[in-house]
Amino acid sequence: MIQRIQTVFLLLAIICLGLFLWMPLIMVEANHYTDSIQGYLVGHSVPIGDQPYIIFINAILIGSAAGLTLIAIFLYKKRSLQMLLCVFAVILIAAAQAFVFYKYQTKVFMGDVIFRKWNLFSALAVVFELLAFVYIRKDEEKIKSLDRLRD
Prior knowledge:
By secondary structure, the chain is an alpha+beta fold. The chain has one domain (5-41, 53-144): Butyryl-CoA Dehydrogenase, subunit A, domain 3 (Up-down Bundle), CATH 1.20.140.150. Helices cover 62% and strands 18% of the residues. It is elongated, with a radius of gyration of 19 Å. The two termini are 27 Å apart.
């Protein structure tokens, strides 16, 4: 399992997703005030009754993508399902990054919103997921060609 290169790519994708959640993604600067917002704190406030509840959408999307990637590591005997989980993880990562940009690009602040370099970890995770997908597909094609030779 670990000797396959796609497993290494999937592990690197999980590490990148963890860093994307942990590192400060956004810095807000306004009138002698600076605040950094970490990845897991990016969310949406929903008023229910008298209290606003915060739904951490970014943490849910990235956590789901990391979970799918972790499950894909252990499904090395079911390559078609492994490829499907990689595709779903890429979609979830893209949705999380789009939410981060949408949330802070359209929001009107009295100061500047600066996107930090840590946002690149989501793009790096997508690259690792796509590389894993390519190598899983190569394994699948190799197995099919060997089965064709046996018949």
